[in-house]
Amino acid sequence: MHSIVHAALAAATVGLAGAALAQGSTMDDIAKYREMLADGNPAELLEAKGEDLWKKARGPKNASLEQCDMGLGPGKLEGAYAQLPRYFADTKKVMDAESRVVHCMVTLQGFKEEDVTKNWFSKPGRDSDIEALVTYIGAKSNGEKINVPARHPEEARMAKIGEQIFYRRSGPQDFSCAICHGQEGKRIRLQELGNLTTQAGAGTAMGNWPSYRVSQGAVWTMQRRLIDCMRQARWPEPKYLSDSVIALEVFLQKTASGTVMQTPGIKR
Amino acid sequence: MTRTIARIALAAAGLALLPGFAQAQKNAPNNDITAQAEQVFRSSFRADNPKYWMTRLDQDEAMRLCSQYRDNPPAKLRAQIEKAQMATIRYPVEGKLIGDWKEGEKLAAVGTGGHIGFIQPDPPGRLRGGNCYACHQLAKKEVAYGTIGPSLHHFGKLRGTSDEIVKYTYDKIYNSNAFTACTNMPRFGLHSWLTPEQITHIVAFLVDPESPVNKD
Predict the structure, then answer these.
(1) Which of A53, B64, B166, B200 would bridge B99 by S-S if both were Cys, CB 3.0 to 4.6 A apart?
(2) What pTM was estimated for this model as a whole?
(3) Which positions 173-202 of A are in contact with B (Cβ < 8 Å)?
(4) Taking CA atoms, what residue in B is nearest to A237?
(5) Contact B45 A242 (CB under 8 A)
(6) Strand partners, A28
């Protein structure tokens, strides 16, 4: 109840801050309304829903996700998100938080992958279980240091592939990730871009996700964030959970390693 | 030294055992990471993207070299790219390079157009603008400008309106890489993102003394 009131309040303040933001500078305003929302991020509602989904017996196998191994052992969630993506011996793949949760919903609960991923992101009037679960799992790494050393050869390979993709230019605007995110202190229109090739820049970019996006009125996961950047680059649409998005995540998390997570976040 | 080599050899042996790696290696001769990245990237898109969307991932020589050298190619390649890009520039039929700055003002501000995919595509036929404000300051009254490129406020006032400046401005917008290989600025004419006529309007917006770029 308490948090619902907070969320309503938060939504109201966001409306105001959003208007101010449209005109004023960016970082100052964001800092300001982060403060306003500090104890009432609407993402907290989703976090609570994610906890329910994690603990409730569901699916054809009528099982909960409590035995899901997010990388630190079955059911161990504290700090797990901050150490993803990582190599999983059982699937022989490097997986991020989202692909791992989907894997658990399929193997432990018996859902079909196509059914689970159909609503991988929410729309007005259409909730996403994945968003809720990932917000819950992410929050279990709040205050933890990002730690993706990418020492396993397959992780190291994915980090290198991610780095290659980061600089790969294509499309009718000649874009790559680097042209928007490869320099210090740049912005596009009024949006600060950040230099994702430095530890501090990558830390700021990665450490707040999943994040409530004020401009979207919804929580976005990292997959959602990166798939939208590819849309902005005017590329075709990647598959959800595709290897190139995971490779980019490994590269960025490796670069961000050592910085502290603050999630669920709140963003423009 | 020997220890490092041994470690690399061990790592390589370990890699060969991983199924994902073996698969990538089959498609990637020389175990080259660029080739592996290319394979991973290309296979990461939804199967229902139409073919004519997928061609957007194809790279021309300039894109390929810029990616390879992370936008910082050695001097010789740089010159080679610039020369080849210069040769792509086409001019409007009537040959007049200065159009209507008012039209140019609109085009410089439009940031929509060209978004594809299934989540939030632009509706078909949506106006495709130059989106110059994404990266440049232009007219003083527009405060929501980006900083990836230099400020172009007072561009004409500072550079003048000589034939050379007008042609340079047209050429730069048509194919930015003709002057700066691997610049962050798109090649608007080369990709037919803007028509030659539209480019002449934007040229006018930049150089015309009456345009708000120069007047205020």
Answers:
(1) B200
(2) 0.89
(3) 173-176, 178-180, 182-183, 185-191, 193
(4) B117
(5) yes
(6) none
Nearest CA in chain B to A242: B44
Active site residue A111: no
Residue B95 at interface with chain A, using a CB cutoff of 8 Å: no
Domain ranges of chain B: 4-86, 101-214
Residues 6+ positions from A28 with CB-CB distance below 8 Å: none
Q: How far is A237 from chain B (nearest CA, A)?
A: 5
Nearest to A233, CA basis, from B65, B170, B172, B45: B45
Whether B180 contacts chain A with CB within 8 A: no
Task: Give the tokens for residue B59.
Answer: 């790279």
Contact partners, residue A130, CB within 8 Å, separation at least 6: A98, A101, A102, A116, A117, A119, A120, A121, A221
* Structural domains of chain A in order of their starting residue, each with its CATH number: 43-267 (1.10.760.10)
Residue pLDDT tens, chain A, 268 long? 333 333 333 333 333 333 333 344 556 666 666 666 666 899 999 999 999 999 999 999 999 999 999 999 999 999 999 999 999 999 999 999 999 999 999 999 999 999 999 999 999 999 999 999 999 999 999 999 999 999 999 999 999 999 999 999 999 999 999 999 999 999 999 999 999 999 999 999 999 999 999 999 999 999 999 999 999 999 999 999 999 999 999 999 999 999 999 999 999 8
Whether chain A has a CB inside 8 Å of the CB on B31: the answer is: no
Q: Write down the catalytic residue from A216, A229, A242, A260.
A: A229
Q: Report how far residue A197's alpha carbon sits from residue A63's, in angstroms, rounded to the nearest whole number.
A: 41
3-class DSSP state of A191: strand
Say whether A185 and B145 touch across the interface (CB within 8 A): no
Is domain B101-214 annotated with CATH 1.10.760.10? yes
**With an 8 Å Cβ cutoff, are A153 and B14 in contact?**
yes
Going by C-alpha positions, the residue among A171, A193, A168 that lies closest to residue A182 is A193
